[in-house]
Write a structure and sequence with these properties.
By secondary structure, the protein is an alpha+beta fold. The chain has two helices and five strands, in the order H-E-H-E-E-E-E. The structure holds coenzyme A.
Length: 146
Amino acid sequence: MNSPYFPLSSIADMSTSAPISELPAGKNPALRVVPMPADANVHGDVFGGWIMAQVDIAGSIPAVERAQGRVATVAVNSFLFKHPVFVGDLVSFYADIVKTGRTSITVSVEVYAQRMRHSHEIVKVTEATLTYVATDESRQPRVLPA
Ligand SMILES: CC(C)(COP(=O)(O)OP(=O)(O)OC[C@H]1O[C@@H](n2cnc3c(N)ncnc32)[C@H](O)[C@@H]1OP(=O)(O)O)[C@@H](O)C(=O)NCCC(=O)NCCS
């Protein structure tokens, strides 16, 4: 899709003026994905709700592993959109468990965008912390396995 209102060329011309970063060394992203034009807001930048959905998915991956089964997101504790994400960026989501409780797992998610249209610069764009609860087949909290 190439809207007459927000042509892809205008997205490519956008300046980031964000500090250049590096991907975390020695870590594998939980998720890597490239947003498409359908994921953009009316200004041509990627819609915050799209980023939140991907963060929730990325955070759930270590949570499901730790819970050895289904989890539900109970809380978004913090969410910072520090820099924009652009259509065509290669976006990497790094997810680490920072706390576990009786039934809950709290995960930190850091998001990096590789500006494929800007010399492949890497910018840390978002950081968030979410809490998941291990649930049973009745969707009730379940004690985490040892
Ligand atoms: C997730 C859910 C099953 C939890 O059930 P609940 O009866 O509210 O759970 P509890 O009050 O017993 O709390 C369960 C755990 O969540 C934690 N928790 C609850 N509210 C929290 C909050 N606002 N922030 C952080 N942790 C929270 C509790 O501290 C507890 O952790 P612990 O057992 O490690 O001490 C239920 O709230 C639910 O189904 N929510 C909807 C989930 C959903 O639809 N998510 C979106 C799609 S996945």
